[in-house]
Design brief:
By secondary structure, this protein is mostly helical. It has one domain: Growth Hormone, Chain: A (Up-down Bundle). Helix content is 76%, strand content 1%. It contains 17 helices and 2 strands. Strands 1-2 form a two-stranded antiparallel ribbon.
Length: 459
């Protein structure tokens, strides 16, 4: 008598439910993390600070993540992604709580401390833990699509924050405190989502283990433990990906962090135009990133798409560097519109390409560490570069913002050099990144079989 075969939830529609929870998590986090960029003017008027202080907030957020994602990745591989997710989510709650208190007391130092705690939890949760658990549920299937959808909803969070937070500020009588309470509510929803994710993932693992044979369980337990020394075994293309990631994301995110003020001071745009142009790349990304992710799963060619996306980012930087007479309002708006359209296409293309490359360059038991190292290197750039930009913008003027664009253009060129090297390295080392996503067979375990053996096809 044969018991009914059970398929892992990772191979059923349950994985899409899990992806939906991941997306909700990303939205809640990003509404809170992005508030300094969308409320820059409100922060300046509330605390009597300058744009350089806004950039320093992002440096404070990124500072602990120079090292934390690396160790966070090792912690994830050591204690498991579920425990790590809950621990680091707790830092998000503490950080946003401090921001609420800082807003109530008009104490900018508490806002800084809150950003530090948001940094302690945010990057490990967003980049490392969620990426590791998503890889677990989609490896060998629609991984680029899953990462594309996940990244799309990060940007949905940014769009929601950009549109809702200024309205909350005005609706409650120019109250920055109301904005921070609004963010705190979303962080609590995020924490609840993480509990549901962990419960679902634990039940899935338990269900799978119940179907495993004694030999399979023994092999699972005998997997080599993760160790810091595993880093030396990472391939060279992994570090090229790291350089590409830190330079590309820094150039794009720092531009976006200062975009609203730049649109106001350099291009003389209205508040409505500023908000529209700021959110435009995120709208484009949210619309087409999942489609691009699905497409890349089918055809591969990831290094080629990295080169294309890098050139798009460089093109938008060149457009922003162009001198234009902003006394003619429509001319300025058209120029910025074109640059932001290109930025949106860059981000929609780059994000679903870069992150699924990482599991292809590391061992299966070191994926958390791999995502952690990438996160650490990325945040080293997002700590140092905003400080440099803060110095450039010490006195805000149209000229200082143009110098900022020149600096970001240099960073973009470094990203492009790395992308080209990734392409040639992959050609001479097995074309692993060029290949389409390998479709794994469905995981099936039969607890009891008839005496006649059944051969399982393994692709």
């Amino acid at each position: 008598m044969k018991k009914q075969k059970q398929i892992s939830w990772h191979r059923t529609n349950v994985r899409w439910v899990f992806l939906g929870l991941t997306c909700l998590f990303q939205v809640g986090c990003c509404i809170c993390i992005d508030f300094p960029s969308v409320l820059a003017s409100q922060i300046q008027s509330t605390f009597n600070v300058g744009q350089k202080d806004i950039n320093y907030l992002f440096s404070i957020y990124s500072m602990p993540n120079i090292v934390l994602p690396f160790f966070g990745g090792i912690i994830i591989d050591k204690i498991g992604v579920r425990s790590a997710l809950i621990i680091f989510c707790s830092f998000l709650v503490i950080g946003q709580g401090l921001c609420v208190q800082g807003a109530q007391e008009k104490d900018f130092n508490l806002i800084k401390l809150g950003m530090l705690f948001l940094g302690l939890g945010g990057e490990v949760c967003l980049s490392v833990a969620q990426s590791a658990v998503l890889t677990k549920w989609f490896l060998g299937q629609e991984m680029s699509l899953a990462f594309g959808v996940q990244i799309t909803f990060i940007r949905v969070g940014s769009v929601i924050g950009a549109n809702w937070l200024p309205k909350v500020y005005i609706q409650y009588g120019n109250s920055f405190t109301a904005c921070m309470v609004f963010c705190f509510v979303f962080i609590l929803i995020t924490m609840l989502t993480s509990f549901v994710q962990c419960t679902l993932d634990k039940r899935s693992d338990t269900r799978d283990k119940e179907q495993m044979s004694q030999q399979e369980l023994s092999e699972l337990e005998q997997q080599p433990p993760v160790n810091c020394s595993d880093v030396k075994d990472f391939r060279f293309d992994f570090y090229l990906l790291s350089i590409s990631c830190v330079c590309s994301y820094s150039a794009f995110l720092i531009l976006q962090s200062n975009a609203i003020r730049m649109f106001q001071i350099r291009y003389n745009l209205t508040l409505t135009q500023q908000t529209f142009l700021y959110t435009l790349p995120y709208f484009i990304s949210a619309s087409i990133t999942p489609i691009i992710g699905f497409f890349i799963d089918k055809i591969g060619k990831r290094p080629i798409f990295l080169i294309i996306s890098g050139n798009l980012l460089l093109l938008s930087t060149i457009i922003f560097s162009k001198n234009v007479d902003c006394s003619i309002e429509d001319q300025c708006f058209s120029l910025v519109l074109l640059a932001q359209l290109i930025n949106g296409i860059f981000f929609a293309l780059y994000a679903p390409v870069i992150w699924p490359c990482i599991p292809l360059c590391v061992n299966g038991n070191s994926q958390g560490t791999g995502f952690g190292i990438i996160g650490s290197i990325q945040n080293a750039g997002l700590t140092a570069f905003p400080i440099i930009v803060g110095r450039i913008l010490f006195v805000e003027s149209a000229e200082s913002y143009q110098y900022m664009i020149y600096f970001l253009g240099f960073v973009t060129i470094l990203a492009n050099i790395s992308n080209i090297n990734i392409y040639f390295y992959d050609i001479y080392h097995g074309n692993k990144l060029m290949s389409p996503t390998i479709k794994l067979p469905e995981y099936e375990v039969v607890a009891e079989q008839e005496e006649q053996s059944i051969n399982t096809r393994i692709e």
